[in-house]
Design a protein that fits this description.
mainly alpha, 27 helices
Length: 671
């Protein structure tokens, strides 16, 4: 038995690791501006606490956002004023505007609001670290727990997302806790362990809609556990029935916890107030955009009809399915593709993992002693969740960031820890016993060298953070977080004459960016740029990749692909100097302007749509703007011809690029 002093020492090391992790996270994020969704999530979380309006940002379950909102309320931070709680719009457009106004137009300090929210949501990262330590120790011993914890604490993407007011860390913590507690229950089936397992599964469900994957994982692990008990006495059918009866109770507890986060209320909004888009209309719209299948066509409507799950949760499930199939255009290995591809996440894993982590994974697979009978169970409980999560992710079209498979990392870290601690104990050569330690140190060194730019981290053999934009985009390198560093970079060089294309949700004026602004996405209504300009250009990674624009030569910032950036700010903002052709930028600016004018001045909208088409005659989106304007002017025959032309052009360019536009064109022709 350990002495009291030895027990304290063994506790001190994991506590020190958590403290070091928190310090790195908080310090590295002090110079990080708002990421794309954080303003929306902060405002939504406040609304949940203020009046229980779960119709705001129903795309995600409320748990993580409620933690951030509670922190704001407890510190007496004023409420968002861009709408009336429980009565405002529930559209995404209003939600992003709500967040924008809250952070930047209410005379509040945006960075202080973010710090409060992020500090609250950091609890999920702490939970993850603690669970990783205890689960690895439970399976393989104390030192495996330390190694697993260290691997997670020094994983760059873990550090990048640890305290964000987003849902990825919450679901990662929930999944590993669910598997740990399910493992304990299946080993020792007591009522207490059953309730705890239900709580763990519930946490995964409440954190993010992809947390629903915990259900097939739990089923697979229960089946695997029973299969590995095949040598035990008793009828297999009876054992399976008892096991899955227990699992059913676990899922009922988990669903009860999900209901609790929505206040045990079916309707999304207080007093039964209506959503901006009714649920039946929402289903009709997503089906017209190509989202079909057993979930949106049968299971979700059934659950809504019989009030089996909160309606706000079902809204979110439909939204996730809609953006996942066919998905968004991914930027992978320097190519923009029309929809998700199966190899996106395996390739992203290789790019975003440290070389030492990959080497440790191979070493653990080869020399970890996993063929031993006593290791079969641990191997199944660690690798089945990874296989199922990746398997589902690889069939999804939502290929926009490594963060979507972040829940797999803790399991791989524990697997590595189990394998390398076995190797160290049983290695016949001292050099082989030292190898895992060297690789763990190299993994930590990668994290140290990446400081403070953990978002854009990529494998050092590919050039590291400065080259990530060549291979990946979105939350892999630029999620809008680079404005703070950009403002500092400009100030240090006394630069005020510049152009910037920023695709994010933060406010440039708040951060003191003095540049003239180019459209970063199709919603940016800005002054018309010249056809050509000379000077310093700052192009965000998302704008460079063009995921929100039309493909090929229609991408307004493709002209910059032919030049090497003179600098790279925080891995997110590319710096160019020279003279550049901006006619494609003019074209999208005319199209954006036409869209903004449609309701008030259809004739002006038509003129701007035609100006866009003059510059880019193959643009499907500009052709649709023309059709909309003609329809508003009552010129139905011409509008139908324009809709037909848009449909034909979309099919010629590639229908996979234009699912929403094709639905729009067909509806226009049918009207």
């Amino acid at each position: 038995m350990d002495s009291p002093s030895r027990r304290w020492w063994r506790l001190l090391l994991p506590v020190a690791l958590v403290a070091a992790f928190l310090l790195v996270v908080l310090r590295s994020h002090l110079q990080m501006s708002q990421t794309f969704d954080e303003g929306f999530h902060l405002a939504a979380g406040y609304r949940y606490i203020e009046c229980g309006d779960f119709g705001i940002n129903s795309e995600h379950p409320p748990l993580v956002k409620m933690a951030a909102g509670l922190a704001l309320r407890m510190t007496r931070t004023p409420a968002p004023t861009a709408g009336v709680c429980g009565q405002e719009e529930t559209s995404k457009g209003h939600g992003y505007e709500l967040g924008l106004v809250y952070l930047y137009k209410q005379s509040l300090d945006a960075q202080q609001l973010l710090f409060k929210g992020r500090t609250a949501t950091l609890i999920f990262a702490v939970v993850l670290m603690i669970v990783v330590f205890f689960y690895a120790r439970y399976l393989f011993g104390y030192w495996a727990g330390i190694v697993a914890m260290l691997l997670c604490a020094a994983e760059p993407t873990m550090i990048a997302h640890a305290d964000l007011v987003t849902t990825d860390m919450g679901v990662s913590a929930g999944l590993v806790l669910a598997v740990f507690l399910l493992d304990r229950y299946l080993r020792k089936r007591t009522p207490v362990n059953l309730v705890l397992a239900g709580f763990g599964v519930g946490l995964a469900l409440c954190a993010k809609h992809s947390g629903v994957i915990v259900i097939p994982i739990a089923i697979a692990l229960t089946a695997a556990d029973e299969w590995m008990r095949s040598s035990e006495h008793g009828r297999r059918a009876q054992r399976f029935l008892r096991a899955f009866g227990g699992l059913a109770l676990i899922l009922l507890i988990a669903i009860g916890l999900l209901w609790a986060t929505y206040g045990f209320r079916f309707w999304p909004r207080p007093h039964g107030a209506a959503m901006t888009l009714g649920f039946a209309d929402f289903l009709t719209r997503v089906r017209s955009e190509g989202t079909t299948g057993i979930m949106p066509d049968h299971l979700i409507p059934f659950a809504a009809r019989w009030h089996l799950l909160p309606l706000a949760y079902l809204y979110g499930l439909v939204d996730v399915l809609n953006v996942s199939h066919p998905g968004l255009p991914p930027w992978i290995l320097g190519r923009l593709l029309p929809h998700g591809v199966w190899y996106y996440f395996p390739v992203t894993f290789l790019i975003k993992s440290t070389p030492a982590f990959l080497a440790l994974l191979v070493l653990s697979l080869v020399a970890g002693g996993w063929t031993r009978p006593e290791c079969r169970r641990a191997c199944a409980f660690l690798l089945l969740p990874v296989a199922i999560w990746y398997g589902i992710a690889m069939t999804s079209g939502l290929d926009i960031g490594y963060r979507h498979v972040l829940p797999a990392v803790p399991f791989l870290a524990i697997f590595i820890a189990g394998g390398v601690t076995y190797l160290v104990r049983n290695a016949k050569k001292k050099s082989l016993a030292l190898l895992p330690g060297v690789l763990v140190a190299a993994h930590v060194a990668s994290a140290v060298l990446a400081y403070p730019d953990y978002f854009p981290y990529s494998d050092e053999f590919l050039g590291g953070s400065r080259n990530t934009y060549k291979y990946l985009t979105d939350s892999n390198n630029d999620w809008g977080q680079g404005l703070y560093q950009t403002a500092l970079w400009l100030k240090e060089r006394n630069i005020t004459d510049c152009w910037i294309a920023y695709d994010g949700a933060a406010d440039l004026n708040y951060y003191g960016v003095p540049c003239r602004v180019l459209p970063g996405n199709p919603g940016d209504l800005l002054p018309m740029p010249p056809a050509e300009a000379t000077g310093l250009f700052l192009i965000s990674g998302l704008s460079y990749a063009g995921v929100e624009w039309e493909p090929g030569e229609l991408q307004p910032y493709k002209v910059f692909h032919g030049f090497k950036p003179s600098d790279n700010i925080g891995g997110a903002m590319l710096v160019y100097r020279g003279t550049f052709d901006l006619r494609q930028v003019q074209a999208v600016s005319y199209a954006i302007k036409a869209n903004s004018e449609l309701q008030l001045d259809a004739a002006a909208a038509l003129r701007d749509a035609e100006a866009a088409l003059t510059l880019t005659p193959t643009s499907v989106r500009s052709r649709l703007k023309e059709a909309h304007a003609l329809e508003h002017l009552g010129r139905r025959d011409e509008a139908k011809n324009a809709y037909a032309a848009a449909l034909k052009q979309a099919e010629q360019t590639g229908a996979a690029w234009y699912p929403a536009e094709i639905a729009d064109a067909r509806n226009g022709i049918a009207r």
